[in-house]
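[step 3/7] fold_predict: job queued, chain A
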Amino acid sequence: MHSIRPARLKPGVTFASLPGPRPADGEDRETGGRLIRGQALVFWDPKVPGKKLDAIDTDQITPAADCVSESLETLDERWKAGSFRYLMPDFRARVHRGETFLVAGDRFAIGSSREMSPAGLKGVAEEAGLELVVVCGNNMGDIFRRNAFNLGLHVVQSPQAVSDAQEGDTLTFDPETRRLANETRGTTYEPVPLTPKEEEIRRSGGIFALGRQEFRKSVETVPAIAWPDPDVARRMTTTEQIVWAHRVDKQAEVRPGATLRVYADLLPASDGTAPFAIHTFNQITGGGAIDPRQAAVANDHFVFTGKAADDRQTAIGRAFAGIHGMGKPCYATPGDGIFHFYFPEQGLVMPGAFIPGADSHSRAYGAYGAVGLGVGSTTLGFGWATGYIYFTLARQRRVVFTGELQAWVSGKDIVLALLRRWGAKQSQGMSVEFVDAHRQLPVAYRNTIANMMAEGEALNGIFAADEVTYAWYREKGIAQLPYPRIAPGVDAHYELDETLVLSDVVPMIAKPFSPGNAFPAEEVAGERLGFDKAMIGSCTNGSYDDLMQAALVLHAARRAGHGRATKPLIVFPGSGAVKRQIETPDPRLDGESIASVFRAAGGEIRESWCGPCFGQGPDALTRGQRAITSFNRNWTNRMGVGGEGYLASPAVVAASALLGYMGPPSELGLAWVPELYEV
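[step 4/7] structure written:
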């Protein structure tokens, strides 16, 4: 049995003096027959008359530039002002005049771990003395859904109600029964039910009240991790085994749909998501009782924008780290790296770990054999206070990779091909078990695949740790791992089981405005699509191996007579360590460094941060600009308002930079030589 570090009391604090619940905490808030009434505010699909808009992502709900908290006292002011800034500029005014039932199609609020989105929507209604009700169809974004319950925002999933609703209809919602009615149509709906624990959180008034109820006992309890015996494990997926081991309540049933309390090995945030997590932690603990548990903060989102407001946001996390004595590696200063790269290379991410991170791309930890998932800031702050989070286990899905990798194909091509196959429904919120049948995918490729399960709308994606994984840790000098080696059980049940034959996968390019809108790069090359910038890096493709892949193409192309990049070529290393490493000569480049190869082609090396990947900083796209990138999302306005992003592997981006149009390395006339180009 393994123990996660227990809570540490601040000097002068005793168990008896720990803060407890407030008088109103735990009261059932939804009694008394209260009825919420308002008019429908419908989001229509501009391309399909009469159809509600699907796949409204959190970038559209709260644009990145509005995801700023300048102080803990004014958390939601920017968020309210930014709500649907571009998708529906008059949203705030319409809510204030009584259009308080937001109606949208399927897959509402997919994407980022933006607590700003539900908090901003709720705040817009509250400033007018009203309550907002979100009514959507199937497969609501899982992070948004959890965030909404935590904050007390009413969310209802009812495909039929969405189909029936028209502009101006009068709708009602009963908070007691969650029954939804359209008075104009004379129809009543029973929404998708909640789990018992979700219902408890909703009725208690949200995560603050629940946290204060559980805080004292959580501090007094030493977290214990106990792995299932072989007979139990053989019937479980890798995700299920890790959740089973990390249960707070050791008798709790581990099955799809169950909501459990689960201990976390690490609870990381970014500078963007930390402020609301800090607020939540302070609300639950009083701020001065304990050190935050398993906490880590990386400054990677708003650190190099040059904006004073962003600096004030970063200062909130810096002050918090100072108060609680958080230093490296748990507190990463600007330039240290993007946290999905930085924390694994620092040895804070281990096989068998359970890691909820306040960023949707925390799913990347599945590349290392951990359960990595994105959560909101309130869930994270609750975890900092208690050491665990509430987690609803998803249905299980398996993807087996067979066949041999083909020329120029990398993890990015694999995941784009998979997202294309999955189509509009994507993974339907499942946990995805990846099986690398021939042990041929390096950790860099696995990172890209697991990371982009955020775009695949999976709860998490995981590669069970194997020799590839353990070799990566040995190379990092990490010999001692805390958990036993586990593998998916031979009798584990998968609701969906599929095979992706890698010999059928070719270099891909995803066109706007979806990573699943992917096509063979050779086919796209025939269109001679020009662009304004080529950008390589981000948390998806910022490792040394990723940048080497691009550098090998540039190096070979130079020898073949190709000159410099025809358009700006910009590189964002995944961490400060990677940025330093790419300055070191490498024999695969005939003694040149990756950085020198990039510079010889006209490339520029930036600091390690997220920047233009989410439309921030001087390299973000402006209206009318187009970029080919190795980033993870190309949704509307994602890389900059009015810009268009295309997604590809580092090798394809590098080749495109030389070509002047989007295309694979084969367009340069480079012959595939495995011993030269495989990373």
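[step 5/7] annotate
The chain has a mean pLDDT of 94.
The two ends are 38 Å apart (CA to CA).
exit 0
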